[in-house]
Model the fold of this input.
Amino acid sequence: MAAGLLTWAVALGAVRAVAHPEFCPTATAHNTRAAATAAVGWFTRNQQPDGSWIYRYDKERDTIEAGYNLVRHAGVIMSLYQAAHAGIPGALAAADAGTEYALRRLVRQEDKTAFGTGRQLSAGASALLTAGLAERREVTGDPRHDDLLASMGRFLHGQLTDEAAILAYWDRETGPIPGYFSPFYTGETLWALARLHSLFPEDGWDVPTRKVAQYISTSRDDAERRFPPISDHWAAYGIAEIAAWPSRTHDKPASAPASPPAPALSHTNTSTKRSDSDLSPLTPANIAYAIRTAGIFGVQTRFESQRSDHGIQRWTRGPYAPGSGLGTIGEGMAALWRAGRADPRLATQVPGGLDRMAERATCAAGMLVTRQITASEAAGLQHAELAQGAWFYRGDTQMDDQQHALSALLAVSQILEETVREKSGSPIFSRRKPALSHPVIAAPTRRGTPE
Done:
């Protein structure tokens, strides 16, 4: 650990030694929605007959590369249902086709259901499919997947350890596989369980949700030896979802049993009714975690906004982050902004408050808008349909680049629409910043991190 700390300190010192101005391109409700619509177009054009999507395209070699990832498939479904919620044409049909692909790959065991193939299945794929179908339920009011949602929720609940960590994998023959954890599956599961409680508040999903939220807020990074701390956009989604729950007293002790009664498929009341109060559903530890995470997203935004495709900044800051990496920053900060709208403690304790969180999320969205490939930029390529509306990193794009960018743009478009209404249409967050004066945690730049 000491060697790791020393390496990290040296790296941060080097970053600080060469400071650059920050630049946040203009983001408006109009251009963020237009970019989101173009991203949906990428998915509708590049969806296969079986409901899957083109996974990766290399424009430098003009090749479509093999491979697929079911966690990211579920994430795309979720993002497209978010787009359908925003009224973007084509999103609902594409998401439903992707859902049909997933429904053909469900594994059922007793009263639990998981999404995946092979002997070992990931918790992340089931968590994001649950979140996506919960979004569909909210958008359409269609109850067709209610039983499946409850069954997948029970699978996810079965992955909880006594400490409320989420075991990353499940074996068809032996059950949850001990000792393996993912940086993001715990946050994804938090969000999925929180969504289930929002949809079915009498079914007891709040109990495991609160336990996972407390684990993430107090223990996860230390227990799983995560350094630097995870900039977990999925946990931010979960915090925002919990913040939107009806207020209640904090009457559940931290040592509450790990397993509540199994939620009923009929969604009858299986939990004890709790009295409401003027207290937020978020605990002080949740608030402290949200504040720390907002700080991480903030400095990641600043670092990314100092990057350039040319000149000395290319050498000192590296290339632009993938669309997936930049998208997760926008998603995470926008989610915490929503949480701050619901809980005044977060809004007042984050430096700069809601305005600063909105500005940081909007800065990320502005970068996404300017870095998206336009129709004219794609026109010279043999596979223009795979480039238009996409975000590239070192010549290639993956479907999760479009997924995370799409979700971020949708969330920021909502922020901008609300901000414009509240501030009488004044210009929104577009300006240069002075050079950085403190160390940062860089945005993700390697493939495979955001899921």
